[in-house]
Design goal:
With 450 residues, this protein is an alpha/beta fold. It has a single domain, classed as 3-Layer(aba) Sandwich (Rossmann fold). 35% of the residues lie in helices and 12% in strands. The protein is built from 14 helices and 13 strands. A seven-stranded parallel sheet has the order 3-2-1-4-5-6-11, sandwiched between helices. Helix 8 links the parallel strand 5 and strand 6. Helix 4 crosses helix 10 and helix 7 runs parallel beside helix 8. Its cofactor is NAD(+). GO terms for molecular function: NAD+ binding; UDP-glucuronate decarboxylase activity. It is a single-pass type II membrane protein. InterPro entries: NAD(P)-bd_dom (IPR016040), NAD(P)-bd_dom_sf (IPR036291), UXS-like (IPR044516). It is found in: Golgi apparatus, Golgi stack membrane.
């Protein structure tokens, strides 16, 4: 018989039942974790560890955080009083800086765990090869930050920062802030602008425009740096000036005083340029939520000042060293206040890291007439120096003295170096640069800055 294959499509073939596992109960994973903790006394060890950690962070005192400016040294300042700690009789105090909280070295937040080091910031300093900028760079590098100096060397000098060239955390860019610049940074210290009468009167158009396009260093330069701060979310500090008060009718000058400025005078390129820069800074703060700080700097002196920049302290010191008569303009009864550069640097850092926008007066309220200043310079350098009187310059302010109550209260800052203690450091630096006299420069001071 032959086999027969019959297809019956309408008939269904029996199939085996498919495997279906039991659903996992929702509390199974919780019960398993609890089981694991309860076995072998694991829970006891966890509780003991938590107790020990709590004890360590509550009983062990945190490291001291008090800030002191006396850890400040100048690179090419000279004489036996190279450290400002010796000037004031104070010892150096360790400093911990907390960015985004607290003021200066004061920690306003919680305790930092033992062994945890402060994270360095990436900071740009425009005008960082200049007198004040180079001292600020020294402080930032010394505390562990990475610093980018931007300078066109109109008034700055490479010699002021060359001791950092071998440091991998230091960069130098030859650039004019009038041109845009793209960088990734956490903070911007904007110091770029000719600040002495000789320099800003030499090129008044360039001075004012750099701080909108019709003004160039004060307007365009500030606009470019504010734009950079807005793009990268950096905090921006503008170094303005006491010149925004002009020839003041209020004495001493407080930050709420609007000033008495001649808008068409020979000094107006600088005065009005800085006033415009403050306006732009506050507009970016209110309109674009840029974090800003404004410092109004009063007369500052110290090592690395330009020797012939026309400022009264540098004029007197250079003339006395060269055995020339000290030039006093007018009757010599105009008053000024003089702060040492380390005091200013401390104030700028505290302002940048504080929580207040400003503006803040940063200056020494000690007031001297020009004749009194000349007498101090004579006592320091040459008691036999002569004084020569000349006609006063146009729009020269009659009185200038800062009210620093706001800085004392909100920043915890005030100057500590008196004129008679800081001036010898400047004199030694000028003597070295004018005569090439290196015998007064302590080797330890130079190497410590490097």
């Amino acid at each position: 018989m032959g086999s027969e294959l019959i297809y019956r499509g309408h008939e269904t073939q029996p199939t085996a039942d498919a495997y279906s596992p039991k659903p996992i109960k929702p509390w199974f994973s919780v019960a398993r974790g609890v089981h694991y903790l309860l076995r072998e006394q694991r829970l006891v060890f966890v509780l003991i560890g938590m107790a020990i950690a709590t004890l360590v962070f509550t009983v062990v005192p945190s490291s001291p955080t008090t800030a002191s400016i006396h850890n400040y040294k100048t690179y090419d300042s000279v004489s036996g009083l190279a450290e400002l700690g010796e000037l004031t009789g104070s010892s150096q105090v360790a400093r911990r800086v907390v960015y985004g909280g607290g003021i200066g070295g004061v920690n306003s937040g919680g305790k930092v765990p033992l062994g945890l080091k402060r994270k360095g910031l990436r900071i740009v300093v425009t005008g960082g090869a200049g007198f004040v900028g180079s001292h600020l760079v020294d402080r930032l590098i010394r505390r562990g930050d990475s610093v980018i100096v931007v300078d066109n060397f109109f008034t700055g000098r490479k010699e002021n920062v060359m001791h950092h060239f071998a440091n991998p955390r230091f960069e130098l860019i030859r650039h004019d802030v009038v041109e845009p610049l793209l960088l990734e940074v956490d903070q911007i210290y904007h110091l770029a602008c000719p600040a002495s009468p000789v320099h800003y009167k030499f090129n008044p158009v360039k001075t004012i425009i750099s701080f909108q396009l019709f003004y160039k260093t004060n307007v365009v330069g500030t606009l470019n740096m504010l734009g950079l701060a807005k793009r990268v979310g950096a905090r921006f500090l503008l170094t303005s000036t006491s010149e925004v008060y002009g020839d003041p009718l209020q004495h001493p000058q407080v930050e709420t005083y609007w000033g008495n400025v001649n808008p068409i005078g020979v000094r107006s390129c600088y005065d009005e340029g800085k006033r415009t820069a403050e306006t732009l800074t506050m507009d970016y703060h209110r309109g674009a939520n840029v974090e800003v700080r404004i410092a109004r700097i009063f007369n500052t002196y110290g090592p690395r000042m330009c020797i012939d920049d026309g400022r009264v302290v540098s004029n007197f010191v250079a003339q006395a060293l060269r055995k020339e008569p000290l030039t006093v303009y007018g009757d010599g009864k105009q008053t000024r206040s003089f702060q040492y550069v380390s005091d200013l640097v401390e104030g700028l850092i505290r302002l940048m890291e504080g929580e207040h926008v400003g503006p803040f007066n940063l200056g020494n309220p000690g007031e001297f007439t020009m004749l009194e200043l000349a007498q101090v310079v004579k006592e320091t350098i040459d008691p036999n120096a002569k004084i020569e009187f000349k006609p006063n310059t146009e729009d020269d302010p009659h009185k200038r003295k800062p009210d620093i109550s706001k800085a004392k209260e909100q920043l915890g800052w005030e100057p500590t170096v008196p004129l008679r203690k800081g001036l010898p450091l400047m004199v030694s630096d000028f003597r070295q640069r004018i005569f090439g006299d290196h015998k007064d420069v302590p080797v330890s001071d130079v190497s410590s800055s490097a």
